[in-house]
Amino acid sequence: MEYDTIAAISTPMGEGAIAIVRLSGDQAIPIADKMFKGIGGKKLIDVSSHTIHYGHLVDPKNGDVIEEVMVSVMKGPKTFTKEDVVEINCHGGIVSVNRVLQQVLKVGARLAEPGEFTKRAFLNGRIDLSQAEAVMDLIRAKTDRAMNVALGQMEGRLSKLIRTLRQEILEVLAHVEVNIDYPEYDDVEEMTHKMLLEKAHFVREEIQKLLKTSEQGKILREGLSTVIVGRPNVGKSSLLNSLVHENKAIVTDIPGTTRDVIEEYVNVRGVPLRLLDTAGIRETEDIVERIGVERSRQVLKEADLILLVLNYSDQLTVEDENLFEVVKGMDVIVIVNKTDLPQQIDLERVQKLANEHKLVTTSLLEERGVDDLEEAISSLFFSGSIEAGDITYVSNTRHIAVLNQSLQTIEDAIEGVEMGVPIDIVQIDMTRTWELLGEIIGDSVHESLIDQLFSQFCLGK
Fold it and tell me: How far apart (Å, rounded) are the C-alpha atoms in residues 448 and 426?
């Protein structure tokens, strides 16, 4: 299949050593050749594939030099898009790379849409849909563990498992067809019921295994929404600064210093945290502070993890105890801070309020207890130190939703067989499971969904 030739800047905008303008399409090499002036009159249309060439980019109309460049020529199908690809390496300034792109568009290329290079790789059969989605996960990965999950998906680990499950379903559907075509053979019917039940149980177990990884996988992909709460002046901003290893939040002895929610990403033992430092939750007459307190209460409702901070040198207050009620039923780690000061808090009472939640003591001023806190966070969500290479994680929200639908249809099929429902009716649920699994890898998915998915990609990828 042939498409028009597209072009885009494939490196981040800004100052740097180099920037890359990428072209893909059947006219990529001729378009680049119109502008390229190589040593000794070298023509790009005559060079070998997967080679790089030094020269200048010129305006073909007047011969003016636009940039000094290195041009990589890669002929399809052994490219990312399976089309001819040219990458023009120029100096990494905003003006220089934009001049190169504008000249490429003048000569005949079209500006690529977001994600269009990866979309072409999918449409041309180089990768399936789950692998294409993993490209963006790889770009957005915030920890090594998240990157390893994305790499595994890009290499087709999830795709291979899905294809295996779909093949198992196809085999049993073929037996069902034999049973429908030759109903006079009783042994065929008995064997088909038995095989259908065995295959359905196998498929269900594999889907359940994948869904068990989904909570951790989604955390790796999107980050763990973590909210720091507590009364004013217990050390919430100090905790944020300790985890980020940078002074992001203002720290003073004055209660109410933090007036709004401060957001920062941090890597804790391979777990990406979207860390939110909130205004101290208390009753106040200050209008600005009151707005901050209300925002704090709102983000609490959406949090995956709560870090509830108490003051070691203060007695427990009604406000402290109310916070335990507010976070009831959530994943909570209780932090008793300021252990460098004389003890006033009743730790036995704190432990009773914390109940089954982890309790950690810290002195953020003296940098004590932070390692224990990081270990508590990691073990809470990744108990047993599971490494990304040990298992196929499902991290994509769309994949999780489709797997849940698939689980329901395969369970409907199992229930149908056990209740003695006619085999051709059970076949409908099995076929639907096969179709749903196909949506994950793009074998059975609507074109509008494909367009929507790739529109979320960055320009030039």
Answer: 30
